[in-house]
Design goal:
By secondary structure, the protein is mainly beta. The protein is built from one helix and 17 strands. The longest helix has 7 residues. The structure holds zinc ion.
């Protein structure tokens, strides 16, 4: 993440470290945020502020996000938030999607376009799910040669080298709308 986004109620610092400044409150132990934004520290005065960010588009719980997979970890993937409920958003925020309990080895690859739903905001991270049929990969390429793939049941097959590979495919996989998005 290029910028760490915090949510209302998130702990920013202890009251021993900093005093509560703009858009924050002091709960007796910790300084917490009252708005969505980014932290600004006044080291000289030892005051911590939150810069409210109306520019940053934060999806709400229940929103459908389409974005690019930016990282794949053991049991989760990070997804850039490029579209919220079908509308383009130019924020640099990512959401985290658990891939635990999905019976596939390869859920998605870096640079795949995926569709997910936001399920929570927790500890400064935006969590999403990819589990339901409509969620998953919308656009991907052959891992071997980088060419176009087509869907074969719940797998993908390269039109060039015939390599067959696993993905957690969305039921919307291959629709023109998302192919256009990925070519941007
Ligand atoms: Zn191929």
């Amino acid at each position: 993440m290029s910028e760490s986004i915090i949510f209302p109620g998130d702990r920013i610092a202890s009251v021993e470290e900093y005093e509560a400044g703009h858009n924050t409150f002091d709960d007796g132990n910790d300084v917490r945020a009252t708005v969505v934004g980014t932290v600004e520290i006044d080291k000289k005065e030892r005051i911590i502020h939150v810069k409210h960010s109306s520019v940053i588009s934060i999806p709400k719980v229940g929103d459908i996000v389409i974005g690019k997979v930016t990282a794949v970890f053991g049991t989760m993937i990070a997804v850039s938030i490029d579209y919220i409920n079908g509308k383009p958003k130019s924020s640099h925020v990512e959401c985290i999607c658990s891939t635990r309990n999905l019976r596939k080895k390869r859920i998605a690859l870096v640079n795949d376009i995926v569709c997910v739903r936001i399920i929570s905001h927790l500890n400064g991270a935006i969590h999403a799910t990819i589990k339901e049929p409509q969620f998953g990969v919308l656009f991907t390429k052959c891992v071997k040669c980088g060419r176009k793939v087509i869907q074969i049941r719940d797998a993908v097959k390269c039109t060039e080298c015939s390599w067959i590979d696993e993905r957690k495919l969305s039921s919307d996989f291959g629709t023109n709308y998302f192919v256009k998005l990925s070519e941007k």
